[in-house]
Specification:
Layout (H helix, E strand, L loop, with lengths): L7 E6 L9 H9 L6 E6 L9 H10 L10 E4 L11 H12 L11 H8 L13
Parallel strand pairs: 1-2, 2-3
InterPro entries: Dynamin, P-loop_NTPase
Length: 131
């Protein structure tokens, strides 16, 4: 994180009611006090109770209104690891359904950008790449 040419990924979980208590934000601010090279990532947005204070707090964060990073914030819905089975198509369908309802409709929609990213061909043999 100290390398000035590195990008910092500050990943916070929406499963934790108060993102301010997540140490990664404090560490990112120590290494990048102006937030010029930090990208925020919010995971597990589907665990938030609709229309709750917690949901509103994370939407404010995602809109770069509370903790401001020059590279902004991105929201990622994780696949349900408890089901054990999934495919890239299932992932896309569930992600699109989640981000097209409720408060997500009013928030910045990044699905098209993520779909474009996942459609890129992978070089080499990588299990995480889906083409």
């Amino acid at each position: 994180m100290k390398e000035s040419r590195s990008i910092i990924l500050a990943v916070v979980s929406a499963k934790n009611d108060d993102y301010a208590n997540q140490i990664v934000l404090k560490l990112a601010r120590i290494a990048d006090s102006k937030g010029n090279r930090t990208l925020g990532v919010i995971t597990k947005p589907d665990t938030l109770v609709p229309d709750s204070e917690s949901e509103a707090m994370y939407v404010s964060l995602a809109r770069n209104q509370d903790v401001e990073f020059r590279l902004g914030w991105h929201v990622l819905k994780n696949m349900d690891s408890e089901t054990g089975e999934w495919s890239p198509i299932d992932r896309d369908v569930k992600e699109e359904a989640f981000f097209s309802q409720g408060i997500c409709v009013r928030a910045v929609n990044r699905i098209a950008m993520l779909q474009a990213y996942f459609a890129l061909p992978c070089s080499g043999s990588h299990d995480h790449c889906c083409t």
